[in-house]
């Protein structure tokens, strides 16, 4: 109950800030309308036009950088910076605009994940295996298995009915931290607690894009899972894809 009341208070504070900002803008524009001259109106209009031109230029540069980075599979300098900006700005907007078309939205998500992986690998930074965290979704576990691997992955019997055992073998061999999570909130808490320097995450395209955009300051490599039985049920993953990404970024 206390937590709920605290959340409501936070929401009220944020709402007050938003309303205050809009009221301040209303006052400023009202005063400008009442007292500004024609020259002032023209200056404001010119400023808006210049701002729009600058936004369009930045968008064009981001598009060029994104296309170049994706096609060349690497980027550096200004192209890398613009591609990172595009990942944060353009592609999330593209997903929202494609909301009515599930096939298009899925394609944009896959493009986002692959572009993000290229950006991470373009930094040309190597990591120690012990600084890497491997996150797996609980839906990789065979649905008939009665073991609770989400609380402790070490209880896995490695029977071969799912890929978790083989991935655990590889993680232990490389001394990589591995966690099996049931959702984004738990994943974020684990990341916050363990503070890895690199994350390799396996999930569906929707959860991967959401997770990558949520994590700030820590590079994330995304590996999409396979869904032969539909989403979130007995999913699969290409282990070689995981190994390839890890080997490229470790020394």
Q: Report the total helices.
A: 8
Q: Main β-sheet: number of strands, strand sense, barrel status?
A: 4 strands, parallel
CATH topology of the largest domain: Rossmann fold
Query: Can you tell me the CATH architecture of the largest domain?
Result: 3-Layer(aba) Sandwich
Distance between the termini: 49 Å
Q: Tell me the β content.
A: 5-15%
The mean pLDDT is 89
Structural class comes to alpha/beta
> Would you state the CATH class of the largest domain?
Alpha Beta
Domain count, please report it: 2
Strands ordered across the widest β-sheet? 2-1-3-4
Poorly predicted runs: none
- So what's the overall shape? elongated
Helix content: 55-70%
Order of helices and strands: HHHHEHEHEHEH
Our Rg estimate from Cα atoms comes to 23 Å
Q: Care to describe what's here?
A:
The mean pLDDT is 89. Helix 4 crosses helix 7. The termini are far apart. The longest helix is centred in the N-terminal third of the chain and has 35 residues, at 38-72. Strands 2-1-3-4 form a four-stranded parallel beta sheet, sandwiched between helices. It has two domains: 36-120, no CATH class; 126-249, Rossmann fold (3-Layer(aba) Sandwich). The protein is elongated, with a radius of gyration of 23 Å. The protein has helices spanning 2-35, 38-72, 77-97, 102-122, 164-174, 184-194, 205-214, 239-249; strands at residues 132-137, 177-181, 198-203, 220-224. With 251 residues, it is α/β, with parallel strands linked by helices. It is built from eight helices and four strands. Helix 5 (164-174) links the parallel strand 1 and strand 2 (177-181).
